[in-house]
């Protein structure tokens, strides 16, 4: 039985704001791809119903942590829908590599990994669609990680279809600041009228992120980082930030730029993958 589970990062390869609903939510077109890099969760079933996070995250109370919330959500669902349910608990540890608030989907990925792992460890028998529906209660990005395939998202991010963009290498860097998503979406200068286009057209056009000009305007660290990376490769903001990424055709090319980066740049190199490392380990495929 697998007890160590990958919790990969994601990138928004492009992100366009196509409108704003009456309730204030923004309508988007975005392309999610996973990275072969992320956090690792170690999960051990317990013989009682206690959910224990043995590696608390500084500044995040357990009751707000998506890891604990995901475990309790599945626990409640399984208890409610099963007959003669045995006690379901778990001891969970996380090896955290992804920066918090970086736009890499770390919290959503953690929640999805917990749902997928405990569904197997507890023998709940839910399919991915059921887990994705549960995960939506925890965050809009959780279903992407549960389903485990690169995806084109529309609406407010809830309308998903599988996609297969090129699997490039990326230098991903954090500017050292946190960008609250509402800061970006509340900015009056945010472009909100990008025309809606079919995925086939979007894949052929140069990729961009409508949130990037706002992040660069408001956060000089993002501007400084992107300006440096753009000297070497196509580079963009992911999501609403704060992380940015530069795109390369090979790992050596990405590492060469990382190795000559200024001391203030904090980053890593990883490959974009269309099948999540979480789903590769489930299906027994190699982590190549």
Characterize the structure shown.
Helix content is 31%, strand content 27%. The protein has helices at residues 66-81, 106-121, 128-136, 142-147, 181-185, 199-204, 212-218, 220-229, 251-259, 277-282; strands spanning 4-20, 26-46, 51-53, 89-95, 151-154, 159-162, 169-174, 235-237, 244-248, 266-273. Strands 1, 2, 3, 4, 5, 6, 7, 8, 9 and 10 form a 10-stranded mixed β-sheet that branches. Strand 8 and strand 9 form a beta hairpin. Helix 1 packs parallel to helix 2, helix 2 (106-121) crosses helix 3 and helix 7 (212-218) packs across helix 8 (220-229). The two termini are 21 Å apart. The relative contact order is 0.19.
| Element-level helix/strand string | EEEHEHHHEEEHHHHEEHEH
Note the beta-strand portion.
25-35%
Shape: globular
The percent of residues in helical segments reads 25-40%
Q: Segments where pLDDT lies below 50 for 5+ residues?
A: none
Rg, Cα atoms, Å: 19 Å
Total beta strands: 10
